[in-house]
């Protein structure tokens, strides 16, 4: 019998498999996707948000625990478990050497992402390179890997794990780590979570899935129906406003359009609907998908002028370009009179001070709702550009409740040999909102905890209260 069964193939699953194997356990990892699509949403990531008290290799200055916590608290609106959040924050300060030992390399951020050089460590080659490095290391250490292996049921004895099932096949193990992702690719479940709008339409029908097509939530649904304690709102997710021309699945990070804070965002009625300059883009980009989802037809339009060009990471697809505002409106399919009136009202409300996109500057609007509190400059310099945006879901926040040992709970009682990591438990920390790189921080921290705990359970070793903190020390 295998010691530790890991279900999933992304960052959290791989961290768990590596930690369990390093602890001396035999490990089998089951990945639902074929080999060429392995890695779940982690293949689309590019960085890890890291706490640090002084400059470290690719990180500049300092990003102390309390600032990190306040950033997380702000974006979640308090919907977070502080103990678990701080555990992940502290773990982010000391995991990089362990990651390097398994073949992950880091690099300074590209010029378009210098605003996160203090807070985020970027993977050389992005998430795909990270996933590939982990798989190579896992296989070299003797972790068994099976692809095209979607688990659809778990056999339990009370709160204890007994076996996993793939159809009629039964796979027993002494302990198990669940890291199979959320349900963002399950259109029926998204419909159920979002319901119908006032017009009787299904908003979720207009969502794009910027992550993996294999996260159907089958295992998550099974566990909840089997009595595992759930946490989180099924309608909450990492939901970004992405280019409306993106593919239905696996568009990844390149579908993001990062110029929202440099211009205005309009809905289908050519009206503004939220403060585009509320805060720095890495702290606010993930609210815009949900905001657009609440607009008519689940579509929005980011409008900028020539002054904004060169100030944001260029998207893959060029924007619609025009020399006049009415021409731009017509190309975007918006009413040109309303469009021009909205832009002119915004321009008149701008109070331009010293524009600086790297700080919360004093360029703001007055006498208009919604206000734009920073980086407000008139849109008056041709050529003008527009990007049509739709909600792009990366991962959902509904998950399984855990403690600091990443144990799955049943009726408030933690399982002794069943653990969970990654998107399947991220809702413990992310009740709503997002800030760049925190998903990888959660997945890395709890993946490593889950793997350590699963190995201890399988090998009959004691589980110490402080293991969640100690195991993050440099290998």
From TrEMBL:
Pfam families: FAD_binding_2. Residues 3-429 form the FAD-dependent oxidoreductase 2 FAD-binding domain. The keyword Flavoprotein applies. SUPFAM superfamilies: FAD/NAD(P)-binding domain (SSF51905), Succinate dehydrogenase/fumarate reductase flavoprotein, catalytic domain (SSF56425). It comes from the Bacteria. Gene3D superfamilies: FAD/NAD(P)-binding domain, Succinate dehydrogenase/fumarate reductase flavoprotein, catalytic domain. The keyword Iron-sulfur does not apply. Keywords: FAD, Flavoprotein, Oxidoreductase. Its cofactor is FAD. InterPro entries: CobZ, FAD-dep_OxRdtase_2_FAD-bd, FAD-oxidoreductase_2, FAD/NAD-bd_sf, Succ_DH/fumarate_Rdtase_cat_sf. PANTHER family: FAD-DEPENDENT OXIDOREDUCTASE 2 FAD BINDING DOMAIN-CONTAINING PROTEIN, FUMARATE REDUCTASE. This is FAD-dependent tricarballylate dehydrogenase TcuA.
